[in-house]
Amino acid sequence: MLIGDVARRSGVSARMLRHYDTLGLVRPTGRTDAGYREYSSEDIRRIFHIESLRSLGLSLREVGRALDDPGFTPAELVDDLIRQTRERIAAETELLTRLRRIGAAEPAGWEDVLQIVALLQALGSKSAGKRQHAALSSVEEVPVPVEALVEAALSETDPNVAGALRWALAQLGDSGLALLAEGLGSRSAEVRKRAVQSIAEIPSDEATALLRDAFANPDIVVRRYAALALGARGVADAVPTLIDMVVEGTNDVDAADALSALASRPTLADQIATRLVDRLAHSTVESSARRRLTQALADIPGITASRALADLSHDEDRGVALTATYILGLRNAR
Q1: What number of other Cβ atoms are within 10 A of residue 146's Cβ?
Q2: pTM of the complete model
Q3: Which residues are 31's β-sheet partners?
Q4: What whole-number distance in Å separates Cα of residue 92 and Cα of residue 156?
Q5: Which stretches make up the HTH merR-type domain (predicted)?
Q6: I want to staple 196 with a disulfide (CB 3.0 to 4.6 A). Which of 201, 225, 270, 318 is the partner?
């Protein structure tokens, strides 16, 4: 069969067949009287074998080795091809994600596209300073798609950059809440924590509703951050968890601040003071925890808190007594 016929039947161009001949992959069995290449059925079978192996991603050099080396074993090469394919898929997926994000930003022109690409690259930089600058610039300049900001916020480990990213998300309002809600269900405890911290920065009713859901999360860290945010927003359900945080010394200063914010409501001040006093009286509470509870009473207004501090100024625990006396002095001086 002549080269033109082989090309038509195999789908391999005549030029490629000549290239195979040059490389020694497929040498035509014979030549016609006029010197044209003439392929046998065995040659054609080899051509199909070459194309089959090429379809797996093998180079022509690897194809030749696979067909001609009797000792060749495919296992290692196939494993390598699997690795290369996974890397290629990951790269293509990353490109697709970047293109989708650029499209979501609805750039008006190529200058906008270039700015968005630069910001996306900066968000993925190894430099914390560049990431922080990108987060702060994402609101003032061409907006970075919210999906990119959420992904960055949920993966950021540097506290300063994380704070900038949470600020940027808060400026966008509720647009990132759905994605952050997905983060609350992540298998990673760190991602769940970053998600609730980001939600806490968004001052909206929808964010508050999501924080209420987070308050029932099985992850205690998520529940505690939700309690801090809910307390600052005046949600009384957070009180028991906030008091537990004071006792345990977990973000106890922030928890005391949240209790103080809640106690600004007259109907809650005495209730919170009573709960704090009840915990102080509990026999299993350690000395350091009793001092923290006493300190938490400092910014709780009302007669219940004042009476409790007066009693505590005579407490058997000298640390508690001194703390209560000092607080009473400050309250009386107001």
Answers
A1: 23
A2: 0.71
A3: 37
A4: 23
A5: 1-69
A6: 225
